[in-house]
TrEMBL record:
The keyword Transferase applies. Residues 31-107 form the RNA 2-O ribose methyltransferase substrate binding domain. Gene3D superfamilies: 3.30.1330.30, 3.40.1280.10. CDD domains: SpoU-like_rRNA-MTase (cd18095). This is RNA methyltransferase. The keyword Protein biosynthesis does not apply. PANTHER family: RRNA METHYLTRANSFERASE 3, RRNA METHYLTRANSFERASE 3, MITOCHONDRIAL.
Amino acid sequence: MNYIQSNQNKTIKEIKALHLKKNRDAEGLYFVEGIRFVNDAIDNEQDIIKVIISDKLESLNGGKELINRVNSVCNECFLVNEKLFKEISDTQTPQGILAVLKKKENNLDEIIKQGNSIVILDRLQDPGNVGTIIRTSDAAGISAVILTKGCVDLFSPKVLRSTMGSVFHLPIFENMKIDGSIELLKQSNYKIIASHLKGKNNYYNEDLTGKIAIIVGNEANGISDETAQLSDSLVKIPMPGRAESLNASIAASIMIYEIVRQKLK
């Protein structure tokens, strides 16, 4: 394991650059932090390019075991002091391990043909909402999640942390055109259902037992007019109380688990 002492080291500069979306996109790389997250990456056979380890990691619970694991799956492992690790970390209290991963490519056409439930996020901006919806989709057995142009970056550290490792478990497509995605789904006989404040249909009355794609819109503005026109059904979740709307991730979770309920039934 190589020891890095200077923040001018090439590897340190490369990792700092991955804090910016444009560099993640250009390199096709991103990073994850923490004992659990790096273990999840190994368990799910992610393509690990390099690992940076703080000299404090060995003293943490599970630290020694993880050091042995990363050394067995990655040829480029580097040791740094705690101060230098904090310079490249995106967390307030880093655990002392960071892994650089290669973005995984999936075939949307094949997944649409083989799957039966898709979640589309239309220009969602809140990292916590996007990460939570991905995690919920993973738990519910959703076939894939599509992030349209205008969504927050999937590989930003805040989104990744919110997924709690679910980013490794299901196909996620980013920067997709909403019209093109809907067209592909309709060609495979998916019913397109969009959550809309002016929706006239009660979501619980929809038949969700077949091929279904649900669309959740932007936190402030909902779905676009174009998306509404392309949808087969505009629905509203019943709200007998006095609140005017639901948080996007809560609304998505309700819709996702109604699909689960109907398919199990």
